[in-house]
Amino acid sequence: xxxxxxxxxxxxxxxxxxxxxxxxxxxxxxxxxxxxxxxxxxxxxxxxxxxxxxxxxxxxxxxxxxxxxxxxxxxxxxxxxxxxxxxxxxxxxxxxxxxxxxxxxxxxxxxxxxxxxxxxxxxxxxxxxxxxxxxxxxxxxxxxxxxxxxxxxxxxxxxxxxxxxxxxxxxxxxxxxxxxxxxxxxxxxxxxxxxxxxxxxxxxxxxxxxxxxxxxxxxxxxxxxxxxxxxxxxxxxxxxxxxxxxxxxxxxxxxxxxxxxxxxxxxxxxxxxxxxxxxxxxxxxxxxxxxxxxxxxxxxxxxxxxxxxxxxxxxxxxxxxxxxxxxxxxxxxxxxxxxxxxxxxxxxxxxxxxxxxxxxxxxxxxxxxxxxxxxxxxxxxxxxxxx
Length: 387
What we know:
Shape: globular
Number of domains: 1
CATH superfamily: Clavaminate synthase-like
Oligomer: single chain
Mean pLDDT: 93
Radius of gyration: 21 Å
Strand content: 15-25%
CATH topology: Double-stranded beta-helix
Distance between the termini: 37 Å
Order of helices and strands: HEHHEHEEEEEEHHEEEEHEEHEEEEEH
Number of strands: 19
CATH class: Alpha Beta
Structural class: alpha+beta
């Protein structure tokens, strides 16, 4: 028997190939749209986190504008933390006191888990602070939104710089991720509960941040292609690109405690540019290839573009929303540069699906003395130091 081959699918979705694959599969088995939903999955989910981009008409619906009094309070909290002489891993509500703003941030945190799933805090005067002070401010404010910070590499970094590193880090092999290029990032989720992004600078052109409701995407698939709900809820082979083991398996879709949760990165299933999908691991199936494209194109259809301004902090629920980014162009004067935190609010958090529990435990297990806050951009590293 000939070895199974990876379907004709790449990191950047091809709508023509997607439609052809769908037509071919339906011609082979016309009963697919009549398949029963897997046990435990509803015909439809609702709630404020289930929305379409066209429903949001004014950014005042999701932007909270910091006033001068609140900015002064943030400045005092910075001075307070620096006066403690503690490492940055100890930044928390009790070491970065915001007595007035804290109530607003608590309400906004509820919006992430119980509301629409996103908000933007506008705007931190980033040019007034050093990079180190900005990181303290960013982590301090964010500690009121998510009490736990997740590590983003194997070396304890809880903060990551998202910018084009293809020139500055060309000497390092393994950029391998659209986040560190000017390329378009297709729809995906990050690991963990919440994502925060602080804009130190925006691009000269492009780079729009896009978000989409996972519940809305699910409802469409459940209504029209319930067979693909089953496909998404069964284990998939996720490439570890030379890690040990060479790949892991888990579902991309979960229904937990009334919430639809989608967790996936397309890159782990298709590879990206020079980071090819490993040849010695199981390929995805034709059904999985169709489901993967369907996730992207439906997320794109129902997405909302956020107007990211310099100094904004964007917070999104990465369990309930998918996100993407347009390609962009930098200039000498304007180079897109975001700083990312992965957060979790232990009081408000959704229940973690069982297959994700080991990942979440590893993510949020980094103690305050182990947390790294890289001041300058770096490519994410494995525990042994390799990129």
